[in-house]
């Protein structure tokens, strides 16, 4: 069977929802509205589908391709405005043509969820949130890998929930998300894929969009937070939050810190000269037959590649024969040359970098490698464990020169004065 699908365009009642993506591609429990409708149409027997898109048709085309993922033959047709069903039928369905669904089901307007009444989704923000929250009782349906860890609580693949975090039914946490210690999600809380809810934050009757950071102790109620945008769905008020500590966008993070400053380089040179006798100690204490400098190779950061090959690498060295932080003494040379920072994320091998999953974890690579990391300061027992990944990603979205200085002070106090 053949059918037409009209993507919504200018819907002033819910204009904020279309700021980051076309309304057809807004996320609903880990899948886009368009994805859900295509799956429903395919289940109903549709084989050929023409999608009429007036709002960012290139993004629509990129999302659906030719429809193979749904077993459909799909063509995306750009329009200058959103057509009515009657206009779409007159323009694209030849009179008397065979193989079409019967009217009025031959033309579907993407303004509702499958199985719900037409026009029920975008009447206003309250209707949208009501429809989305209404999906929670069957949250895991048609979603591979989603687990219901307790009645009404759904968690996606590769999502980490701290032992002291609390998930209150009904709620949904998408894949590759992170719920930190003491955070509360629910009731009626939705955290989409790749989002991070930090320590002590609360999300209730609210939606956290994909790859969005919710700050420490932030309380989110009756709201939609996506990127930097914060919408109160009851009043319709919207604001752009400029404070990264409260709310920030993880999806567009590039390099947040540039290469080390000239002062940092000068300091590294001075420390190298003043601590040069460490080499003699290391030479005398190194295991027999082991070289003084141990060669290491890491992904060059900040890394902004897209192919996942991590072909750009940097060689650095560790010092044999000395314990703890002293092993990183040769990395000061990398600080001097501008390839490392005093404070950053610890260097990763290409194999380790390939194991980072989701946009949030990959923020580890968004800042230059550092001699000292936040994970070091917080005493993470496993250098590449879950805690270290969380701290590294957190550090990437909270640039602060004063914070770097405090971290250095804490680390050197712990290393040389045994002060926690």
Number of helices: 12
Strand order of the largest sheet: 7-8-11-14-17-20-21-22
Number of strands: 27
Question: Segments where pLDDT lies below 50 for 5+ residues?
Answer: 254-259
What gyration radius follows from the Cα positions, in whole Å?
26 Å
Judged by helices, strands and strand pairing, the structural class is alpha/beta
Roughly what fraction of the amino acids lie in strands?
Answer: 15-25%
Largest sheet: 8 strands, mixed
How far apart the termini lie comes to 69 Å
> Averaged pLDDT, please?
88
General shape = elongated
Helix proportion range: 25-40%
Provide the domain count.
3
Describe this structure as you would to a colleague.
This protein has 420 residues and is α/β, with parallel strands linked by helices. It has three domains: 2-122, no CATH class; 137-249, UDP N-Acetylglucosamine Acyltransferase, domain 1 (3 Solenoid); 262-417, no CATH class. It contains twelve helices and 27 strands. It has an eight-stranded mixed β-sheet with strand order 7-8-11-14-17-20-21-22, with no helix packed on it. It has a five-stranded mixed β-sheet with strand order 9-12-15-18-23, with no helix packed on it. The termini are far apart. The model is unreliable at 254-259 (pLDDT under 50).
């Amino acid at each position: 069977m053949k059918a037409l699908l009209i993507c919504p365009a200018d819907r002033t009642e819910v204009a904020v929802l279309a700021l980051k993506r076309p309304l057809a591609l807004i996320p609903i429990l880990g899948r886009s509205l368009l994805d859900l409708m295509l799956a429903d149409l395919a289940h109903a027997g549709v084989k050929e589908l023409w999608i009429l898109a007036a709002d960012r048709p290139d993004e629509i085309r990129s999302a659906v391709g030719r429809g193979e993922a749904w077993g459909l033959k799909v063509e995306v047709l750009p329009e200058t405005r959103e057509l009515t069903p009657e206009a779409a039928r007159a323009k694209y369905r030849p009179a008397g043509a065979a193989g079409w669904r019967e009217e009025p089901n031959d033309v579907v307007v993407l303004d509702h969820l499958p199985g719900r009444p037409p026009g029920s989704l975008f009447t206003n923000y309250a209707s949208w949130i009501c429809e989305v929250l209404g999906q929670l009782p069957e949250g895991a349906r048609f979603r591979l890998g989603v687990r219901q860890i307790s009645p009404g609580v759904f968690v996606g693949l590769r999502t980490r929930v701290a032992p002291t975090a609390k998930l209150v039914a009904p709620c949904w946490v998408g894949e590759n998300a992170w719920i930190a210690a003491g955070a509360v999600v629910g009731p009626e809380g939705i955290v989409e894929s790749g989002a991070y809810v930090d320590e002590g934050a609360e999300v209730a009757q609210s939606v956290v969009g994909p790859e969005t950071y919710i700050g420490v102790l932030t309380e989110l109620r009756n709201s939609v937070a996506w990127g930097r945008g914060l919408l109160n769905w009851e009043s319709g008020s919207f604001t752009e939050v400029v404070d990264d500590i409260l709310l920030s966008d993880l999806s567009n993070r590039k390099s947040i810190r540039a290469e080390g400053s000239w002062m940092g380089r000068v300091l590294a040179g001075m420390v190298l000269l003043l601590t040069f006798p460490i080499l003699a100690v290391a030479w005398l204490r190194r295991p027999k037959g082991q070289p003084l400098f141990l060669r290491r190779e890491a992904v060059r950061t900040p890394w902004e590649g897209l192919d996942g090959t991590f072909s750009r690498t940097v060689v650095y060295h560790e010092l044999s024969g000395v314990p703890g932080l002293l092993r990183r003494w040769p990395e000061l040379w990398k600080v001097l040359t501008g390839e490392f920072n005093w404070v950053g994320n610890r260097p990763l091998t290409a194999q380790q970098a390939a194991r980072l999953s989701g946009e949030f974890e990959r923020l580890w690579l968004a800042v230059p490698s550092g001699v000292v990391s936040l994970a070091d300061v917080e005493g993470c027992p496993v250098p590449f464990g879950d805690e270290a990944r969380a701290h590294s990603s957190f550090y990437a979205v909270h640039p602060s020169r004063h914070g770097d200085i405090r971290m250095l002070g804490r680390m050197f106090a712990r290393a040389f004065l045994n002060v926690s």
